[in-house]
Amino acid sequence: MLLQMSKFLEVPSIATTKNSFQVAASYYLIEKFRPIFCYVLPDAQDPLEGKEKELIQLMIDNSNHWLRMYGSAEELLENINIYKDFSRSHELVSLSKETYPFRPRIFKSFQNEKYIAKSDLFVILQNMMIEVATPEPFEITRMLAVYLKSREKSAGFKSIEFVKFDEAIFEKMRERMKVEIGEKPVLSVPRMSMEASLEKLRRNIPLTLDNSQKENFDNFLGIFFCISDREAEIPPINTLVTYFLDYKRFTKALGTIIDENPDMFSPRGEDSDEPLTLRVFEDGDQKFLMKEEIFKPTEFDFFRNPNTIPLDTITMKELLESGEIRNVEFIRYPITRAKHRATPIRGPAGGLFILAIDCFFEYLRNLIHGEQILQKLKPTDLPKFLQKLNECDEFNCREENPYFIQTDRPRAITYMDNLHDYLHGLKWQDILKRPAKKVRNVEPSGFTVQDLKNELEHLGLTTIFPEIQDYAEAVYSEVEKHKKERFLRTCDVFDAIEHCQLNCVLERLPKLKKFVHNQKGCHRVHGMKCEKCDAEKPENEKDQKLKILEKELADLKIAHQKILEENQELQQKLLRLSVKNETNEVQIKQPAEKLTQSKLSIDDVNYSNACTSQQNVQCLICEKSMESGVDQIIRCPLCKRRFYEKCAINWIKDHQQCPVCNGDLPIF
What we know:
By secondary structure, the chain is of the alpha+beta class.
């Protein structure tokens, strides 16, 4: 069942569109490279159906060598998918008329239970419908996405909420969907004009359309008319109504499932007994939460935008110490990063955020590879440039907890417009117009440390940073460790050049270096020497040893407790066996005493004093001495023991076995 449900977490090939792919890819690229998509992808048709890698390769081939820093087409596609797969990413990368373009993520709680964002359930319904019904033509799939997005919007989710991911429930939804869709109805309709058909369909559409969606719907119907016109044997209105009836069946099935599961597709009510789900962001050994998801807004907060910069966090340790935990289920939310960008995170009241440290590295990467600003600056420009960069308030060196910065802006607007304002005093546009050399291609056999030093000099970076080659060896060593193929490639030399420049900038800006340290980013700069990290290492080593000892002690306590429990269980078992043994001894002793007293003979049935011992034989039932000739005597056919006949007859009224050997007695 798990394998079957997992396919609904993947983007169906028929649900991929040129626009959403183009927007996601362009957002992943450095701003300067984004127009490349507009030139390369104008003729791509929807759905893409697995052509993404082919289109990326075409884009790389026509990029005038600008995209070499991203590696192969396969690597770039993998990183784009990592970047765009976040909850409600369609609000950023796709139009309202397009399908959901991302893969829903499964998260685990601190109790190791699976959870999924409620808004992502609409994506699963889309993928489930595509698998169950295979809507045709593609425009029907698009309109189903319009319907689902409308239902998601009308649900009114004000924050990210989670619900348990139960494969059995989704299997029931799938079966319910099959039942609701049923068989395709037989079509019998009169011929109508296009205008009359449009009006009839608008009246029957099961959702309210805004102006943009209304225009999309009219275009959608127009496409149907074009399709039906090409099919001369089918009257146009019949084709159109067939499509619409299919669409209505599908939306009815989707609506039924949504309405039957309000706890899954609606926000949590204030009087709900269900625990509140809170995201615990995990980045390495750091665990923290967004403050605005936990604490009620103060009077001051009502006068500010909930998505303003920055968005503060509280560590898990601080939260536990505060005691602000009541009926809460903590959801582990790992911070994910592609190679060149971090995956955006939905804010408490909307908006997209990334950690400040990720924003810092992305902004510097844009300056280094996109604008090539450090290659274009003259040595006399550098002090003022660094001063302005150092004055950027977004990168707060006083904050030790992680914090988020909002990154979503209107399309075609750079992420950090406000940071560019700091640089206007440097005659920014004049500097950008200066020429800059390109990074040279690497030979198939790779490159060496000396090759890296030569490239730094070729790019003119030794002029502005005379010491930059001193970082080459340490940076080269780290790049070698992280390479994807046998030999270092051109994309690897881009990485090395970037990290050499980062080291030079941070060594000149103690404020930003402190920011990087406080935000736990030192290890992300190859070859960086951080005095604070070095000073913390002995303490960290002591803490690590203490943690190891504490863990060993805890394990020993657990093992000791287990041994105590096992010993207690064994003692109870021994006691039970002792009681049973005493009982058995008593039961065995009684017949043994009887046997000792009886001293029966195995001779002829006629009793003879010569065949017995001097002591009289007893009947083992009545325990009286057997006297010859007084009463008739019988014996057990198995053990040959003797009894008075009347005693034996009375005995077998209540028993079936011999009182000595437990063998079956004959019936008299």
